[in-house]
Specification:
The chain has 365 residues and is of the alpha/beta class. The protein contains 13 helices and eleven strands. It is 39% helix and 14% strand. Helix 5 packs across helix 12.
Length: 365
């Protein structure tokens, strides 16, 4: 039997929505006990239940739409998480594009874009949001091979859709969604067909899903050829420029550099200019993400274009299917989910512009 401790006199700041964490703190019990009491579930004594309900009423706690939807397949509230700072590769701009697409696809569904400074903070935020029933489903991006957000979602049984390339073995990801077209693998094939054999992948973090997909594509393209693939990490534009400058001074310098985003690619172009190397005739450069900046430089950057807004309808289908944790679904629900999983996906594509060409004759094998 749970015995409540003395109630706290601390109340939420004026104007802030009261959460079950506030109720638990004020009632002197755990969040789990508050959840049991507020939802009429067994596991707490009647006196404790009355105590929690009284405290919740005193604080002005009210259930939100996400909480009411947890036991149904209705999609009520989406938490879309983006990373900021050095932890992000594409998730900040992509998150805004996804948010715009989701808002157009489901205008009546509550949508919150939450920014996390790193993945550990993102995992803690996701767990708190699920525990407090702020959202009925979540979207995460920029996943590591063993991402704490995916592991947390699996542990607490939160319905999460990961926007991540397939086949990367990301631990804890039960439901992933990505673009058709195989653009990441296509980069390596395109460069190899041009005759390149000395590849460098220049990325912020080689563990991130898109970087791993690009690496896999380059390795596949190099298989069976007398080719080399080197991975270099640089966490900022200045570091990327310095890394590119070093690469350009080494014997047998790379003839093709692939980056994970436009900022890193721009740093490579600037480093090549300082070394008086001609792009694309001395070195080809590919940006792993398209952006307006890719079209504002001379020459314009060859890049992977991903229609993030167009992914929203398929994402809504996946989110609706995941609104109820797997442990709470019936066999009929699971079969319906499998049927809904067959859905059209927009295609990403490699947009060929002015920064790619065959390598110099002396570098061909």
């Amino acid at each position: 039997m749970t015995t409540p401790r003395r109630r706290s006199s601390v109340r939420p700041a004026a104007g802030r929505r009261v959460t079950i964490t506030d109720v638990a703190h004020a009632a002197g019990v755990s969040i789990a006990v508050v959840s049991y009491a507020l939802n009429g579930r067994p596991g707490v004594s009647e006196s404790t239940r009355r105590h929690v309900l009284r405290v919740a009423d005193d604080l002005g706690w009210r259930p939100n739409a996400a909480a009411r939807s947890m036991r149904s397949s209705h999609l009520a509230s989406i938490g879309l998480q983006a990373l900021a700072g050095r932890a992000a590769t594409h998730s900040s701009p992509a998150g805004l594009e996804l948010a715009a697409g989701l808002r157009a696809a489901v205008p009546d569904v509550a949508l919150a874009v939450e920014v996390a400074l790193d993945r550990a903070a993102g995992a803690a935020s996701l767990e708190a949001a699920w525990t407090e029933r702020r959202h009925s489903s979540f979207v995460v991006q920029d996943l590591l091979l063993d991402d704490p957000r995916a592991r947390t979602a699996e542990r607490v049984q939160a319905p999460v859709v990961a926007v991540t390339p397939p086949g990367l073995g990301t631990a804890g990801v039960a439901h992933g969604l990505w673009f058709d077209g195989g653009a990441e693998a296509g980069v390596g094939r395109y460069l190899a067909d041009l005759g390149h054999r000395r590849f460098v992948l220049l990325v912020q973090d080689a563990r991130v899903d898109v970087a791993r997909a690009l690496h896999a594509g380059l390795l596949d393209a190099a298989a069976g050829l007398r080719a080399t693939v080197e991975v270099v990490e640089a966490t900022s534009a200045p570091e990327a420029g310095a890394a590119a400058a070093r690469l350009f001074t080494t014997p047998g310098r790379p003839t093709a550099i692939v980056t994970d985003g436009d900022v890193t690619a721009l740093a490579v172009l600037e480093a090549a200019r300082h070394r008086e190397l001609s792009v694309p005739w001395d070195v080809s450069v590919v940006s792993g993400a398209d952006a307006e900046t890719c079209r504002l430089v001379e020459p314009q950057l060859t890049a992977i274009s991903r229609p993030w807004r167009d992914l929203a309808p398929a994402l809504v289908t996946a989110l609706g299917a995941d609104a109820v944790p797997a442990s709470s679904r019936s066999a009929a629900d699971t079969q319906a989910d499998e049927h809904d999983a067959v859905r059209p996906l927009p295609a990403a594509r490699l947009v060929i512009r002015g920064t790619t060409a065959p390598p110099p004759a002396a570098a061909r094998t």
